[in-house]
Amino acid sequence: MTAHDHQTAPRLRVAAAQMDVRLGELDANLERAGRFVADAREQGAELVLLPELWSTGYDLAHAPAHAARNEAVVLPALASLAERHRIGIAGSLLVGDGAGRVRNTAVVHGRDGSVIGEYAKIHLFALMVENHYLAAGDAAPTFSLPACTAATAICYDLRFPELFRSYALDGARVVLLPAEWPAVRMAHWRTLVCARAIENQFFVVACNRAGTSGATTFAGHSMIVDPGGKVLAEAGDDESLLVETLELGRVDEARSQIDILGDRRADLYGANFQIANHR
């Protein structure tokens, strides 16, 4: 790719808002998120990613009440923030599924405040008792940003490469990953975020939370990683805002050099992903 091509290829300026989360305190968390959104827009971001369950944290014992308030108050407030600042906003929060259950759902608002993407976490994390309080999602959709196709995964999903490969095959160039990943497994976080970008040759914008809830300290270290696995930006363990411009032409450049998707042999190993009698 020539210098001219880099100048004319589409770009997306993104932000990862690594914020602390007050357990069950929706108003305080919304106010804090609003400040991150405003700061991101001041730095030219077109899309800002908030952490997993940023409005409540893992206060899952009160999940139905939190979901109702997220739907009545928080989501309309996000739509208003997006429209006012002309910025896309993404992050996961507790939302009802319409059948009396609650899901950990990533909602993406466009710059006009409309919802342009939704993804309910399909891999529930037993160590945080998600499987006790929440219903799993049942779809892995992509969605359209002005500059490219994108997708969302949530925290524990990072350990399931099949999900990310399906997004690559569906045309995603950017995957947004909100998380509440604990510090005790930070080495896994840094390795897996880079691995998902490398093996699928797309950008990964990974926004982890900071701070402590109960006995759990969260890792921070939000990352923005390019299709070659280069870490474009990484936070420390405190609250911070990462802002980076994604040169989306790098996806085509990486895939033209090593044709990972084209060289797959799904005819040989596709069925073997079904492991019988798994314990």
Q: Would you tell me the overall average pLDDT?
A: 94
CATH topology: Nitrilase/N-carbamoyl-D-aminoacid amidohydrolase
Tell me what portion of residues adopts beta-strand conformation.
25-35%
Count of structural domains: 1
Given helix and strand content, the structural type is alpha/beta
Q: What is the number of beta strands?
A: 14
Describe the largest sheet.
6 strands, mixed
CATH class: Alpha Beta
> Span from first to last CA?
48 Å
Q: How are the strands of the largest sheet arranged?
A: 5-4-3-2-1-14
What's the Cα radius of gyration?
Answer: 18 Å
Summarize the structure in words.
This protein has helices at 3-8, 26-42, 63-85, 130-133, 161-169, 186-200, 249-257, 266-269, and strands at residues 11-18, 47-49, 88-96, 102-109, 115-120, 142-144, 149-152, 174-179, 203-208, 212-213, 216-217, 223-225, 231-234, 240-247. With 279 residues, the protein is α/β, with parallel strands linked by helices. It has one domain (11-260): Carbon-nitrogen hydrolase (Nitrilase/N-carbamoyl-D-aminoacid amidohydrolase, 4-Layer Sandwich). The strands form 3 sheets. The chain has a 6-stranded mixed sheet with strand order 5-4-3-2-1-14. A 6-stranded mixed sheet has the order 6-7-8-9-12-13, with helices on one face. The protein has a two-stranded antiparallel ribbon with strand order 10-11. Helix 3 links the parallel strand 2 and strand 3. Helix 2 packs parallel to helix 3. The radius of gyration is 18 Å and the shape is globular. The termini are far apart.
How would you summarize this macromolecular structure in one to three sentences?
About 30% of the residues lie in helices and about 25% in strands. It has 8 helices and 14 strands.
